[in-house]
Amino acid sequence: MQLACGARQGGSHGASDDRRGTGQAIAGPYSHCQQARAADNDGLPTPCRVPDPLLYRTLVWLDYRLAAVVAVGLPLVLLVWAALRQERALQRLLGIYWKVASLQLIAVLLLTDNRPLGYLVALLAHLLMVISLWFWVDLNEELADLPPWRALPFTVRAWRWALSLFGGLGTLLSLMALGCLGGSVSRPLCRPWLEVPDDLHGGVARTFAFLFGGSWTGAIAAFVGYVALVAYVVGVLQWLLVRLPRQGRVAGGF
After folding, report:
1. pTM for this model (two decimals)
2. Where are the domains of the chain?
């Protein structure tokens, strides 16, 4: 009887240990979220939607690399190509895109000085770049009328879809970092967005010092970013209040 009782007690202790071990194993991948919440003293919610900060950092760096190719390199080549071929519709589409995509540069300038507003601007930049490529009825019709087997129209169509996929990825990643608007940019989901702007800032600062003999600081970059953002917002409001009610989804002289 004593042996049986001891066996039952040992089994119950073992089961409870197994349950505790299982619970720890399940909570293990997300334990960094609990530690991050415990470490925060500002009372702000810590975003913990990504269980692996290293994976998130890799995706953010991928987003920046794709931006250099899909959002900057390819549209620049296409703009020059369209100008050489004198394709007016494609020139207008790419011209509108570059006006809208300048918001991405503003986000980089703000993030250079660790300004939390840069996270929101980066999110809006991803969304508006995609919208600017599909919003215009007249440009969509003119692009659809171009022969699909010609190299330039085919490349522009492929680029629009590639940029749309890139914009979707960037939007999801930016949404996860919206918690950084609270001001604590040292969180695991905030720091990766600052690494590339910091690297770019170092190169720009050295070039600026070599050409002009002055210093390009993070504060200057943020000031330029804020001024550009005000000008951008004024332009968007002017389009929303004046041109959109009058012209609708026709690009016209945008």
Report:
1. 0.77
2. 48-247
